[in-house]
């Protein structure tokens, strides 16, 4: 889809350049340095996105299927979204050649994939934003001709590869406590109930469009923690005596899947023989929390990030 983004001042004119200013695009390097790719308000930025952005919609899907001699067609056994390729045509300029080259060298340094992935962020005028981790793959290879470069400007079609196809929204953190009170379970945050054995049931809303895998943090004292997604029927149980100074972290995220005590001790054996480190489904999830051996200092914290199919 055509995309030209920026602020409120005079835009470049010419055929094929729409006046669309609602979306901004930034690149955050692996070192954390942020570069605006769409800042028209500050002409010193020297970069803006040209029409021709691609790869911001649905990802490519791979279908796994079997054929049978008994009937026509096939049976689909699974569907997987593949890595995403994102294309961003970019115009880079400077008031003179030294300043243009300085901006070019900074961008080249920040795009270097050898230092790890960066982050592309598409932000809307209402403050909402979606981001994706990606590697620079192609585009700044040094091709020079009359249509692509001048003394103090250049254009390039940047190509990024995102290992995960999903765009990320806001991070959410919810904390559940055991404490004194009337004994009535209140669906408020932080949640508190009188019973020191059961934190209770809660609805957790995943505003994203695909499954998201949370990080659970359990602060002692506790002896066992059973965490169940009653919407899907999946659960896992951590059996380990935690003192009031102990913290167990169960990271269910794809590609990580780690369980640690105080950041060091491996707690995988304490999850039993076949734990299901389940995701939050899109929409409402009914989650049950049962913790034994607790006190008023005990808590369970949930952190997750909504994931989306598109950048907008």
Automatic annotation (TrEMBL):
<feature type="domain" description="Siphovirus-type tail component C-terminal">
    <location>
        <begin position="208"/>
        <end position="308"/>
    </location>
</feature>
<dbReference type="InterPro" id="IPR054738">
    <property type="entry name" value="Siphovirus-type_tail_C"/>
</dbReference>
<protein>
    <submittedName>
        <fullName>Phage tail family protein</fullName>
    </submittedName>
</protein>
<dbReference type="Pfam" id="PF22768">
    <property type="entry name" value="SPP1_Dit"/>
</dbReference>
